[in-house]
Amino acid sequence: MQHPSVLWFPRLLPKVFVAMALVPLLGVCQTVKETVQKGSPQDQLMSALYVGYFLPSGMRDIGAEEGWRNLKLDASSLLARSPEDTTLKFVVAFADGELARRAKDFRTAEAQFQSASVLNRNFALPYLALAETALDKGDSSSAHGMLYAASIEVPKTVPASFLHLAFTRLGELYERDGKFTDALKAYKSAVEAKPKWLGGRTTLAATYLKLNQAALALPQAQEAIAIAPKDAYANALLGQVQSRLGHHESAVRAFKNAIEIDPGNANYQYMLGLEYESSGKKLDALHCYNAAKLIAERDKSYGELLPNIQQALSRLQ
Fold it and tell me: What is the rounded CA–CA span in Å between residue 296 and residue 248?
């Protein structure tokens, strides 16, 4: 019979967190893979839990429910052989909590996350999960206390390989709670933990923009371009920053770079159109708006953008 770590791990990674295949886009894949594959079966299960919970929002939900079920199954199988193993109990409780939260069974979710917290009282993960559950329920006051506790425990208890992702997750939850200053602090910590991580730089730049601090956003956006000059989103974000600062030519150049990299993105065409319109170049703006409209009409994912495009065309026609 195979060793348990051989049994569960090949099943877990392909089926569980399919998002791992996308992690190279964020510059963390190799580190995460090496961390997940190290140590005992318990260590590997904990690393898989980190992967599932800490990946950024756009990637976190890929195959998520199946992933949490498989994670629970793997931990439960090992727990049957080692019934006193605290780490395995923690993984089972946390996975049960996450499955319940996703099913909007908030009472069960809170009970399971609290059980996980009892198993490891000085650990950030249950605090983060309880905060997220509270936000899902609309209970901001409870969420704030849990996030404060998580902010203390994240640097103490999260492994270095996942620290930048943990700080980013903390920042996302602070944003949901409307605490943008706290979110900014968390995003700064994410960048300090992994300075050459593209996702950290773009998130920090975008948050500065939300706080109307374009001058502080600029070096972060520029660093993002230095890290990944061919990243379309980073170029578009730089364009937004330059536009906010009134640097018209630099903004146009950045938006054009984004479009060259990703010509099928209606948002980038629309943003370039706005930049042209603001500087009085109506024909150039019309060209961009029409290009954005054609893309948005073909691709239903741009449904929310289409009315804005129509309004822009109406202003110029």
Answer: 25
